[in-house]
Amino acid sequence: MKKQPEWDKDSWKKKQVNQQPEYRDQDTYNQILSDLSQRPPLVFPGEVEKLKTQLALAQEGKSFILQGGDCVERFQDCNAPSITNKMKILLQMSVVLTHALREPVIRIGRMAGQYFKPRSRDYEEDKDIMTFRGDSINSFERDRKSRLPDPRRLLQGFNNSGITLNYIRAMIDGGFADLHHPYTWNLYGIEKTEKWDDYREIVERILDAIHFMESFGGLQAEKLGRIEFYVSHEGLHLDYETSLTRKNGETGKYYNLGAHMLWIGDRTRDLNGAHIEYFRGISNPVGVKIGPSTKPGELIELLKILNPSNEPGRLTLITRLGRDRVDAVLPGLIRAQQQSGIGVIWSCDPMHGNTQVTGKNIKTRSFEDILAELKSSFLVHRREGSFLSAVHFELTGEDVTECTGGAIELKDDDLAKNYQTFCDPRLNYIQSMEMAFLISKLLKNPDN
Ligand code: PEP
Ligand code: CO
Q1: Percent of all residues in the chain with a pLDDT value above 90, rounded to a whole number
Q2: Is the CB of 289 under 6 A from ligand 1?
Q3: Domain boundaries, the chain
Q4: What integer pLDDT is reported at residue 222 of this predicted model?
Q5: Does residue 96's CB lie within 6 angstroms of at least one atom of ligand 1?
Q6: Measured from the CB, is residue 265 less than 6 Å from ligand 1?
Q7: Of the candidates 380, 439, 440, 371, which has an alpha carbon nearest to the alpha carbon of residue 404?
């Protein structure tokens, strides 16, 4: 294999770097980056390596990964109820999947740092207002001044990430994930619908299993083995990510200690770009979003650059093709990966290729499109002698109205009722649970 050029934390600066904000006050910006680089990190290398070991199991088909959370976290949601609800929905979905698979499910939140967004335009239609790029960069408030990138937001984002992760850890240590806690399911939204008959049996079986285990004197999560929860975000803002990148004194390896896992977005995955350069040198597990424009030859190069030593658990390819493009595009990508001889975890993000805008100019996604992309992906992998071992969702534990459809039959006209997202539309609590039921059926039989 071709020898890779030298890497250091800053070698990306010699490459073309896209999607970065420009700060007017460079002195404050530099001071903040320097402050961030002195802060204690949010995660520890041992945890990052542990996640990689678990992802390696998924790569062998021995476990499954559920990654999910907001499209973009909001500073205003750095509070207990919002974090609790996100943990709850991810835990509940993972219980449904574990029950179907009879194997461990690794939970990775899009949480504790998902404060940066790539955008297709720098400015809104009214020219002098910049687009919103995530709370760590500018404010959602739509006026010229609020939208200017403010370096102090980087520090606020880092602090909010720390607070969020601290609360996640406290909840887990304090028993939130014990059997009886997050399993109070609020399914009355579906119970009244026609689809309920399809799900009732799954729900009853799982709840029976939980009650059965609880009847042995209230089994605690610790006794079943501590639950694990990891955090991830898109590694977009490279100065920020560099400031959280640390060298491990013992091994000499570099880790981004601002998250367990990071992913590269579809807009920043160009082979010669700065993002790929930065990511090739860190030892974290890395995800790459794979959009429909990805060419098989390009994918092979990407695999060689990001995982030259073919390390298990290192690389997750997250396809986000759109329901109608899976059949045409995915087989070529799977074959390219097989041909490369480099192992990966295949994940499906059925959200980002299925975004639509309604007649009233509201961004939405339909439950049926999301499910259709998942289903086609399961089928194509099976046909190609490969397998999907991860799913990636934009979801929330709240009762928002952002995606249409599902058993609750949300319509375009319902979207305005509780449309909260600062960026892309998310599945709400009940739609997420229903999705977990349907994935558990697909996992058993993708022809269903
Ligand atoms: C995202 O995950 O929110 C995102 C922007 O995805 P993509 O890079 O796949 O467009
Ligand atoms: Co998104």
Answers
A1: 83
A2: yes
A3: 11-444
A4: 47
A5: no
A6: yes
A7: 371
Give, for ligand 1, the residue of 132, 264, 289, 427 to mutate: max count of ligand atoms closer than 8 Å to Cβ: 289
Mutate to test the pocket of ligand 1, among 72, 74, 233, 266 (most ligand atoms within 8 A of CB): 266
Transcribe 284-328 into DSSP letters: S-EEEEE-TT--HHHHHHHHHHH-TT--TTSEEEEE---TTTHHH
Contacts of 85 (CB under 8 A, 6+ apart): 396, 397, 398, 429
Q: Could you give the count of Cα atoms lying within 13 Å of 133 in the half-sphere of its Cβ?
A: 27
How distant, in Å, are the alpha carbons of 101, 105, 197, 234, 347 from that of 445? 11, 18, 18, 32, 18
Residue range 11-444 in CATH 3.20.20.70? yes
C-alpha span between 381 and 326 (Å, rounded): 10
Q: For 200-215, how does the pLDDT look when each residue is reduced to its tens digit (9 = 90+)? A: 988 889 888 887 877 7
pLDDT tens-place string over residues 297-355: 999 999 999 999 999 999 999 999 999 999 999 999 999 999 999 999 999 999 999 99
| Nearest residue to 94 via CA among 447, 435, 446, 448 | 435
* pLDDT tier for residue 182 given thresholds of 50, 70 and 90: low
Q: Average per-residue pLDDT in the chain?
A: 94
Is residue 294 within 8 A of residue 265, CB to CB? The reply is: no
From CA 279, how far away is CA 287, in angstroms rounded? 10
Q: For ligand 2, an ion, list residues with CB under 5 A.
A: 71, 424
1-33 per-position pLDDT tens digit: 567 889 999 999 999 999 999 999 999 999 999
Average pLDDT over residues 404-416: 97
